Amino acid sequence: AILIIDFGSQVTQLIARRVREVGVYCEIHPFQSAAEAFERLKPKGVIFSGGPDSVTRPGSPRAPQAVFDSGVPILAICYGQQTLATQLGGKVEGGHAAEFGRADVEIKETSPLFEGFWEAGKRYPVWMSHGDRVTQLPEGFKVIGTSENAPYAIAVNEERRYYTTMFHPEVVHTPDGGKLLRNFVQKIAGIEPDWTMSAYRAEMVEKIRKQVGAGKVICGLSGGVDSSVAAVLIHEAVGNQLTCVYVDHGLMRAGESEQVVGLFRDHYNIPLVHVDASELFLGALAGVGDPEIKRKTIGRLFIEVFEAEAKKIGGAEFLAQGTLYPDVIESVSFSGGPSVTIKSHHNVGGLPERMNMKLVEPLRELFKDEVRALGRELGLTEAFVGRHPFPGPGLAIRIPGEITREKLDTLRAADAIYLDEIRKAGLYDKIWQAFAVLLPVRTVGVMGDGRTYDSVCGLRAVTSVDGMTADFFPFDMNFLGRAATRIINEVKGINRVVYDVTSKPPGTIEWE
Ligand code: XMP
């Protein structure tokens, strides 16, 4: 394995992505707990991430001494380079011209780090982002790459297998960065790729069996990829000791509940309790127009219904959740202070303590795209694993203001047409999320010879990497025209369609 020591860079997760792409297992740990992680993981190589601090500041983060004493190879990036240099007796100073963004690195000598793609005497584009710089190298190091503002762009000690770069190989703006990380992992640390989804599947099945024993497991299905993959994997491990619970809040899209029930009950033959709680949810939401009250009502009811079903099933001591690696990485944050709640997210985080259950989380080590790969490995269809994310509160947050059954039906019909057109145009996989919104606004139109006075439908489509930031999708106007015409012609109650061209920030993806 590879241990990545996090010094607080915004892009530490990308290092892990690149290492996993090479087929090698890795974990990220903050510098504070890196010593224990190093001891436990016994990695064959260590990567130091970048970070926002300055090594010249007293008390700034350092790498554990044990890493240096062990003799494992190190790749140290940006802040990592500076702390490594400082810890081994070199010097770092601030106050130089900061270098941000694209730079060219000129290679002075060959090295196993870039063997096969960078040649001595040539220049290659890399991505820099730093203020301080190393001014004196520790003993045994030499410079093998320079850039205009970074005389120590690449400094190495080949004998100890310490490689340091002032640039970030993990970002896409360093086009050869992935290959550089591959060389570090495979050639320098000498790790054979063995991180495949079929190996992970087999390993997890064993782990789940061991953890669960003869116990009973309950898994809440949302219809999304994560909980579905978790459920199928757990079922493979412990068979009918697993019961899935699907709380249908009546806020799902057209045909969605049937799909979930069909897939699990009929296709995988997994015991599934389908709770139709739409009366309860829609009753509680009647007359509620405030987005936060809607979200909180749905969250609270979900927990109540789930808890009641779990009691009926009886005797389960384990609760399965589709928690992913990005949720568990204890990243280093230097920002401090509580952040503002923009939206109360619907999740079941409070359930395990409340119900006194132990968690089974077989996806805790995976990134989203790895969950998709595991889903494929488990036989889920491409259409299923490639689904856009769907929020826990469902269509409730896509109908600003009060929700009624009639509005839900109207929205479902419009949304289905929009997604159908997107699929037909071959655009579904290019979009992070696409959906229709039903606005609480009526406008005048003319259809045939008559006057209409109906609702406005908003269309939203965004591109994003993680849902944290997003851009609106640049449809061609013909596409939008086609979708709008079909929605207005086919959906009763809608006579106008608008397209949302807001990015996030300042907008959010959902409308509430
Ligand atoms: P926003 O609207 O905050 O959404 O830009 C970011 C991403 O999160 C999804 N979302 C949710 N997912 N429970 C969820 O599981 C929620 O309560 C929730 N609210 C928003 C949203 O669809 C988008 O992908």
Care to give the gist of this entry?
This protein has about 500 residues and is an alpha/beta fold. The chain is about 35% helix and about 25% strand. It folds into 3 domains: about 1-190, Rossmann fold (3-Layer(aba) Sandwich), CATH 3.40.50.880; about 195-385, Rossmann fold, CATH 3.40.50.620; about 405-500, GMP Synthetase, Chain A, domain 3 (2-Layer Sandwich).
Query: Strand order, biggest sheet?
Result: 2-1-3-4-11-10-9-6-7
Per the CATH scheme, the topology name of the largest domain is Rossmann fold
Task: Assign an overall shape.
Answer: globular
Instruction: Give the total of domains.
Output: 3
Strand tally, please?
A: 20
CATH class of the largest domain: Alpha Beta
CATH superfamily of the largest domain: HUPs
CATH architecture of the largest domain: 3-Layer(aba) Sandwich
Approximately how much helix is present in the residues?
Answer: 25-40%
Ligand inventory: xanthosine-5'-monophosphate
Assembly state = single chain
- Beta content comes to 15-25%
Largest β-sheet summary = 9 strands, mixed
Which structural class do the helices and strands define?
alpha/beta
Radius of gyration (Å) = 26 Å
Description:
There is one protein chain. Helices cover 34% and strands 23% of the residues. The chain is α/β, with parallel strands linked by helices and 512 residues long. It has three domains: 2-188, Class I glutamine amidotransferase (GATase) domain (Rossmann fold), CATH 3.40.50.880; 197-385, Rossmann fold, CATH 3.40.50; 404-499, GMP Synthetase, Chain A, domain 3, CATH 3.30.300. Strand 13 (242-248), helix 8 and strand 14 (272-276) form a beta-alpha-beta unit. Residues 333-338 have low confidence and may be disordered. It binds xanthosine-5'-monophosphate. Residues 343, 345-346, 389, 391-393, 433, 467, 504, 508-510 line the site of xanthosine-5'-monophosphate.
